[in-house]
Amino acid sequence: MKGAGEWGTVEIRRPTPADVDRVFEIEQQSFARPWDREAFELLAACRGDYNWDVVTYYLRVAVEGAEVIGYVAWRVDRQSREGQVDNIAVSAEWRRKGIGTRLLRLALRLMKEDSAMSCVLQVRESNRAAQALYRKMGMTPVGRVPEYYGDEDALVYGIDLDSI
Fold first, then answer.
1. pLDDT at 5
2. 13, 60 in Cβ contact below 8 A?
3. Which residue positions in the chain have pLDDT lower than 50?
4. Which of 15, 48, 81, 107 could form a cystine bridge with 44, CB 3.0-4.6 A?
């Protein structure tokens, strides 16, 4: 999936093991409590799709040239028919250029194609930029999880995938 913009051509594709270093670097820069590197290694080794029972975990990366500039990780539970965005991050120098929007749009579309009827995600209450992105994509706040991040509550956003 390619798209041109003022910053050049950005492609969103399945990850390879060679992408893990950069994905993990973006993860560490973006989150106070980053995922373990092994999670990204597993998803990259499976080319971005890992099936476990009724749940499939996905990872896609956004690249400009040979540089990974962002990623999105999500899952679909085919029994409950619910998707969940587990993680989305864009390298600091590439933020506010539409990369996060494209990553989220792709994840929502692929969730729907994989039988999900709805999607949820959690976001730090203080992360106003992410909340603005989720609202722009049609998501609405549907709940709160106290101390989800240890030091901060999470807001839960959701969307009915029939609306996309």
1. 46
2. yes
3. 2-7
4. 15
Distance CA 15, CA 12 (A): 9
What CATH number does the domain containing 49 carry? Answer: 3.40.630.30
55: left (phi > 0), else alpha (psi -120 to 50), else beta? beta
pTM here is 0.92
DSSP 8-class letter at 57: E
User: What tens digit of pLDDT does each residue of 43-75 get?
Assistant: 999 988 888 889 999 999 999 999 999 999 999
Name the β-bridge partners of 64. 10, 67
Enter the tokens of residue 54. Answer: 């009724």
**Cα separations in angstroms, 150 against 14, 36, 122, 157:** 32, 17, 13, 19
**Alpha-carbon span 66 to 108, nearest angstrom:** 25
DSSP annotation of 35 reads P
Name the residue range of residue 99's domain.
2-163
Cα separation, 52 vs 49, whole angstroms = 10
Number of compact structural domains in the chain: 1
Q: Which amino acid is at 21?
A: D
**Across the chain, how many H-helices and E-strands are there?**
4, 9
